[in-house]
Amino acid sequence: MPCYFAIIGSRDNPIYEAEFTSPHLNSFPSELKELNPFILHASLDIIEDLQWQSNPQSGVGTNTSGGFLRSRHSNNNDNCYLSKIDHFYGLAITGYLSYGNMKFVMIHSNSAGNGGTTQIDDPQVRAFYQEVHELYVKALLNPFYKLNDPITSPVFDSKVRSLAKKYLTK
Amino acid sequence: MTQKIISPSTSVTQAASTASTGYDYTIGPQQTLPNEQPPPVLASRLYNESLHAKARKAQVSLSAFAFLFQEMISQTRKSSKSVAEIESKLRGLGYPIGIRLLELLNFRSSLTPGSRAFFNKASSMSGSAQGSNGVSTQQEDSLASTITTMKRRDLRVLDILQFIHGTVWQYLFDHVSDDLVKSSERENEYMIIDNLPLLTQFIGNNNVQCDSFVCGIIEGILDSACFPCSVTAHCMPEDKFDRRVVYLIKFDKDVLEREALRF
Amino acid sequence: MAIQTVLIINKSGGLVYQRDFLASSTKLSSNDYLILAGTLQGVTAIASQVTPKALQISGSNLSKAANETEYSIPYAGPLGVKDQKEDMGSFLPPDYFTDSFASWSKSGLKHVTTDQFSLFLYQSMTGMKFVAISTQSSTSNMAVSFAENFLRKAYCLYADFVMKNPFYEPEMPIRCELFDKKLTEFVQHL
């Protein structure tokens, strides 16, 4: 299934984006492709809310705006991976927060492309995010990289894409 | 007979043409095309090295660091006009370190002790990771795949201060800080106390507060964890410890408001 | 033996540090100290010139075992160091150094004795001279090696608390509180 992935900096500025498409199947329809950044940014409010919940995955605190969207399967108390945070006409949006509150966000579309609901394979997506997080820490350790600058390293890019191949687009 | 001219400059630009732009709205995201060849492997020490604490030498010579620190202060002193300017420049030097420490140390503490065995394997492979072998090792090289649960992000003021008091101090100065106190007078003030400051132990000048560097580190950590604050260092000798330093952390109002709302 | 005064003379013969540790009756004026520093510098230079060439050459091959005993100064025990674990600066406890060491002032002035006092001189590789004046006249080899140990530790303190202080300009008079404090402590624990 095609995915659109972006890292959003602490000032809500995008610093990296990529689109992953499966080798044998479709990509985003071109008219939807343009909308991806907007859909993704629309979910930032929800992330910001979840950011300060002690158990963002548990579905506690349903009185807050993001609460009703929580997927309730989670049983661990990891508050970096936020699981599915939002949806938009069959597209699912997952999020992840790094310790420096960088937002890793991704739009998943189902492979059929017919607008049906998209299933999120949580362990796989989580593993992907953790790997990207590690790459991000490495990028940040570069003394020439400043916080909230776009990550332009081709190595970072190719590593993220091979991770996507490994975990997401099968 | 045609000869291939190897010119290093063009090979670099070719590599750069496959580069991502990070984010550029005029271009949009680059997508991986179905029939695309896997991208050329780029050797990069930064991305191929392990983040594991044992992957590099954990100790730094104190003398070497003292000379570096001395030179940092001399440089800022030469380029500044007032004491306040020196201190704010030192703070600025510490700030990016804090940002990096927050991510790195938290990531490292997510690792379980069991990943040690994994590390040994990775280090034996890192020798062959150069050149064309890079991609094949890269997938085993990541520490993230060994992490079952990431360490929780610190959401409360006390949690993040504990992190600084314990983990960060241990990493930077090889001992936990001597005390972590809440101010009795003001709600938003906390103090971290160090009886024997490591960095400034050779500097006996009270006019310029050289511990501002550490203030910058603390500020960087707290700021990027979304606890905006201002940190100041004060020299407060107490009987046996004549260089005792108190780092006063003043959180912004909205940190306390958020805490009151959320927890 | 009590240390009366410690002087530090820079490589061009200027007095950069002077400190009295005893409230002695004979106080020299600061001008006299400057003259003393200059004189010592000159005498050292002359002395190194009049050192027999044979001695200088044999002294330069310190690695040879035959000369080693002659020129190495034995370690005189943890003098001046309190039994505290911390506060050793960049040196590892228990002491600043624990081995015998080769003297760097192979040629030149090392030791002056009168009836009233003795003067010991330790020269660093860079030409800094550390001078200690003691209240006794002592001629024994013991006293000389003891003094050399003492001055070498003073040099260690100098390396830590003067050279690592960003507010100190090289070759200028030393005004470092911490160095003062450490040296006083050190002399008091002798």
Order of helices and strands of chain C: EEHHHEEEEEHH
Strand order, sheet with most strands of chain B: 1-2-4-3
Number of helices of chain B: 9
Shape of chain B: globular
How much helical structure, as a percent, in the residues of chain B? 40-55%
Sheet of most strands of chain C: 5 strands, antiparallel
List segments of chain C where confidence is low: pLDDT < 50 over at least 5 consecutive residues: 62-69
Largest sheet of chain B: 4 strands, antiparallel
Along the chain, the helix and strand elements of chain B come as HHHHHHHEEHEEH
Q: What is the count of DSSP helices of chain C, taking H or I runs of 4+ residues?
A: 5
> CATH homologous superfamily of the domain at 62-110 and 153-261 in chain B, by name?
Trafficking protein particle complex subunit 3
Structural class of chain C: alpha+beta
Task: Write the CATH architecture name of chain C.
Answer: 2-Layer Sandwich
Could you tell me how far the N terminus lies from the C terminus of chain B, measured between alpha carbons in angstroms? 77 Å
Quick take:
Chain A: One of its GO terms (cellular component) is cytoplasm. The complex is a heterotrimer of chains A (170), B (263) and C (190). By secondary structure, chain A is of the alpha+beta class.
How does this model look, in words?
Chain A has five helices and five strands. Chain A has a single domain (3-52, 77-168), classed as Beta-Lactamase, CATH 3.30.450. With 170 residues, chain A is an alpha+beta fold. Chain A starts with a strand and ends with a helix. In chain A, α4 (122-141) packs antiparallel against α5 (154-167). A four-stranded antiparallel β-sheet of chain B has the order 1-2-4-3. The radius of gyration of chain B is 23 Å and the shape is globular. Chain B has nine helices and four strands, in the order αααααααββαββα. Chain B is α+β, with helices and mostly antiparallel strands. Chain B has a domain at 62-110 and 153-261: Trafficking protein particle complex subunit 3 (Muramoyl-pentapeptide Carboxypeptidase, domain 2, 2-Layer Sandwich), CATH 3.30.1380. Chain C is of the alpha+beta class. The longest helix of chain C has 21 residues, at 30-50. A five-stranded antiparallel β-sheet of chain C has the order 2-1-7-6-5. In chain C, strands 3-4 form a two-stranded antiparallel ribbon. Chain C starts with a strand and ends with a helix. In chain C, 28% of the residues are buried. In chain C, α4 (141-161) packs antiparallel against α5. Chain C has a single domain, classed as Beta-Lactamase, CATH 3.30.450.70. Chains in contact: A-B, B-C. At the A-B interface, β2, α4 and α5 of A face α4 and α6 of B.
